């Protein structure tokens, strides 16, 4: 059984990460009624001897481990935030017992808000990165030592804020230096055009350069797309198209089974969408399946060129609360939804762009024949590069999400991600042409104006690579010559 380590950086990274841990534990509790520590837990958790015989964590009493167990489960994760607020909230919340204090790195002053601006390299990357380098490396090594077969690191962060973009990509560089053979999956939340952080275009473009060079796979997610999805679900719920009955054995209710817990804040609902993405992505590592897909297979099959490693993700069914009785989609409709604009986690329409490759990760009672039938049905409407017309990767996990008969996560290496990068560059240039707010960055040692020029140049090169691929979209398909066997 392979294992993974999650690195949560900044406010967004920690909130999304903890949402994932909450749902993953409750999903396991719903599947494993005996409450034993098994391989499904071992992929992201480890046993810790309490040596006291005291009560185990009460959040999952009777489900994850026995009431008087001598061991508890500790998450294989590292939580980093230069502002203490979010981490302190986690340590006082229902997940407090599954985090080890040795897994936390915080600072009092914070790199997120400096003179009312969220500064990327000036504080998060340059200052705090250097200050906490040895501490971060030590904690990463100790966490990795608890893995028998470490397969990948998950980094969860935002692109617009100071800690997420600056320190998040600094950690990415460290991982490449310290664990060069371990895959690095990055979940990056991109700011919207109406973001309240004025300098977020600077932060995002500077971070993009690091993602281009040091990540194996990046799952870009846009705040604007998440907000639209949440609004659509809310409208459907309000109009009565979705059931609104609260399940007492909810996946996201508190340990006290209080129905008030389902009244989420908007950011909680958006974070829940991303957490569901991670649940589907890691399902093959946590549960059995007839065609389970290792995480390294995603990079091997979906990334034909090193820099073009940005994978557009779509989910179906979409829901923010597992408490809402969302009707299961019919199987064929579920596959159609995965390629529609409304189910993408970025503002994009992949059906009208060029596919380099596509992966379908299905959960539930779905047969391989169902997969092949839907792929053949959808292929005529999708544009694949001429040299990879059969660029499909499929995975089947037998365990569906709680409350659903099946679900689908589609990961597409598609040129539809290009408009996101173009818009980001345009927002960057509006500030950079006027040299607005640059002084907030340049007064920190090691931060020079050339860093901005190099970052926008790296982004421009990436956009040009996608342009070159798009130019081949209408080229006729060329089938390779078949091997002739002499008789």
Key features of this structure:
487 residues, alpha/beta, 6-stranded parallel sheet, 5-stranded mixed sheet
Short description:
With 487 residues, this protein is an alpha/beta fold. It has helices spanning 10-31, 39-42, 84-91, 120-125, 127-131, 133-145, 162-178, 200-214, 223-238, 266-281, 283-286, 295-302, 331-338, 368-378, 418-432, 439-442, 449-470; strands spanning 3-9, 45-49, 71-75, 77-81, 104-106, 150-158, 183-190, 217-222, 312-316, 354-364, 383-384, 392-397, 406-414.
Low-confidence stretches: 49-71, 110-119, 243-262
Oligomer: single chain
Q: For the report, how would you describe the main beta sheet?
A: 6 strands, parallel
Structural class: alpha/beta
Q: What is the radius of gyration computed over CA atoms, rounded to a whole number of angstroms?
A: 22 Å
Helix content: 25-40%
Mean pLDDT: 82
Number of DSSP strands? 13
Order of helical and strand elements: EHHEEEHEHHHEHEHEHHHHEHEHEEEHHH
Q: Which range does the strand content fall in?
A: 15-25%
The spatial strand order of the largest sheet comes to 5-4-1-6-7-8
């Amino acid at each position: 059984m392979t294992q993974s380590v999650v690195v949560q950086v900044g406010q967004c990274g920690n909130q999304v990460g903890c949402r994932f841990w909450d749902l993953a534990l409750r999903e396991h509790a719903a599947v494993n009624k005996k409450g034993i520590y098994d391989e499904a837990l071992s992929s992201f958790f480890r046993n810790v001897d309490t040596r006291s015989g005291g009560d185990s964590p009460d959040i999952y009493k009777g489900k994850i481990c026995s009431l008087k167990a001598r061991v508890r489960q500790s998450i294989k994760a590292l939580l980093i935030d230069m502002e203490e607020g979010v981490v302190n909230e986690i340590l006082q919340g229902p997940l407090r017992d599954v985090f080890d204090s040795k897994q936390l790195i915080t600072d009092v002053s914070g790199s997120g808000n400096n003179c009312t601006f969220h500064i990327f390299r000036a504080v998060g990357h340059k200052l705090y990165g250097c200050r906490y380098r040895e501490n971060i490396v030590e904690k990463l090594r100790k966490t990795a030592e608890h893995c028998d077969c470490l397969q990948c690191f998950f980094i969860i962060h935002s692109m617009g804020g100071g800690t997420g973009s600056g320190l998040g990509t600094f950690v990415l560089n460290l991982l490449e230096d310290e664990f060069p053979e371990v895959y690095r999956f990055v979940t990056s939340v991109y700011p919207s055009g109406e973001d309240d952080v004025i300098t977020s275009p600077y932060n995002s473009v500077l971070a993009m350069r690091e993602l281009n060079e040091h990540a194996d796979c990046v799952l870009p997610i846009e705040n604007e797309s998440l907000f639209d999805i949440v609004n659509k679900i809310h409208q459907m719920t309000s109009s009565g198209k979705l059931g609104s009955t609260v399940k007492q054995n909810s996946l996201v209710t508190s340990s006290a089974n209080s129905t008030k817990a389902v009244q989420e804040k908007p950011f909680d609902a958006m974070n829940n969408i991303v957490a569901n993405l991670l649940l589907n992505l890691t399902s093959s590592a946590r549960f059995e399946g007839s065609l389970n897909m290792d995480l390294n297979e995603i990079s091997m099959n979906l990334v034909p060129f090193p820099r073009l490693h940005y994978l557009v993700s779509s989910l179906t069914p979409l829901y923010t609360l597992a408490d809402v009785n969302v009707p299961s989609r019919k199987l064929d409709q579920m596959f159609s939804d995965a390629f529609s604009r409304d189910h993408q986690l970025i503002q994009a329409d992949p059906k009208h762009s060029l596919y380099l490759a596509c992966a379908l990760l299905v959960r539930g009672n779905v047969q391989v024949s169902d997969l092949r039938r839907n792929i053949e049905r959808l292929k005529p409407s999708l544009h694949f590069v001429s040299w990879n017309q059969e660029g499909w990767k499929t995975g089947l996990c037998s365990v569906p999400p709680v409350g659903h008969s099946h679900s689908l996560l589609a990961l597409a290496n598609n040129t539809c991600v290009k408009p996101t990068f173009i818009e980001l560059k345009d927002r960057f240039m509006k500030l950079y042409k006027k040299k607005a707010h640059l002084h907030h960055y340049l007064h920190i040692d090691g931060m020079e104006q050339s860093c901005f020029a190099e970052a926008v140049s790296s982004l421009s090169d990436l956009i040009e690579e996608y342009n070159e691929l798009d130019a081949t979209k209408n080229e006729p398909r060329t089938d390779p010559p078949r091997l002739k066997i002499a008789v």
